User: Fold this.
Amino acid sequence: MKLKNSKLLIVLKGLILENPVLVLVLGTCPTLAQTGSVISALGMGIAATLVLVCSNMAISALRKVIPDTVRIPCYIVVIAGFVSVVQMLMHAYLPDIYDMMGVYLALIVVNCIILGRAEMYARKNTVLDSALDGLGMGLGFLLALLIMATIREVFGNASFAGISLKFFEPYKIAILTQAPGGFLVFGLMIAAMNKIMEKQGGVKRKSFSCEGCPTAATCNKRNCSEMSEIADLSQEKEEA
Amino acid sequence: MKKVKFENVKPALVLGIICLVVAALLAGVNLLTKDVIEKVSYERKMASLSDVLPGGNFEEITPTGENETVKAVYIDTNSGVYVMLMSTKSKFTSSGQSLDATVAIGSDGKIQNVKVTSYAETKNFGDYYKQFVGMDKTDAEGADLCAGITFSSTAFRSMMKDAAAEAETLGGAMK
Assistant:
């Protein structure tokens, strides 16, 4: 039971507690670019999840074989391979979504969620755990994209997944479908996430591991919890 | 002569092997999807002919070869209207994918209908292409560009000019 719970926790961690978009603020470029419509957000989310799970599994399986000095080029080759596979499959079987995603499908290769999880998690954990981490992070990414795309499409374009919503037609805010609207919704969603998590006890920097941090590899001096404790201490000092 | 240590060669060897395995995987997937992709592309092209000229009875004819963006030319045997499959792949396309369109154009060289069939850039084309309906070669040359998609709209305008020129040449040849 405990084992099952720990596996479930790995998935749930990516979904909410360490959501890659709203908490770790990774993968911002596709988030802003692909949330103009629900369909393209869905396509991007599914494609990124597939690549994330497969690349995490492959990298975890190869973790003892890949020398440290060439690990990043190896990860890039593996990730690029899976992205190309997904691209070809989408071109063949989902041509409309393939066209809609355009250049952003190929850009999954440089999505920092994928490279970040490979570097921070998959290279240190088992294949199963890495697959679950990839699934959780992918679903978290998909969830954030879908919520953001729904807000932008419904209120910005008075439609949902291409279906016109006549009730919203007179009230639509066109800027939401443009780039500034994307930034606005993104910021509000992060604020809302922080507020919700605050009520639940809060997500402080020390409450999630260094594995989620994109700069953890270069941050050799102290880990996040030490830094957070130092920040808390200095705040207390100032207050005193 | 110095002996090469295995530890020094290992990184290159591992990276090389991973590259080979990934290349083999891609070759396999390409083999599986190649025909499907070709079939889907062909079906979409044929559907785009009917989209720009509904109810047409299309017969393929040979392009003049003077305009490089004209990839295929069909003629509607009922009305004599040309339908052209256009494609451009230049410095304007950062993704490496082409900008494709299907154009219905009369033998007088006037554009009757246009449809963008492939555009993989980051900005949406919107309704920009619709302004070309009713234009001939001279009008297309002077057509407005679109802010935000300047390079793409330049490429598109040049494509429309080619289509009009092709129709004029083909129309003249038919007479």
Observations:
- The longest strand of chain A covers residues 159-160.
- Chain A has two domains: 2-203, 209-240.
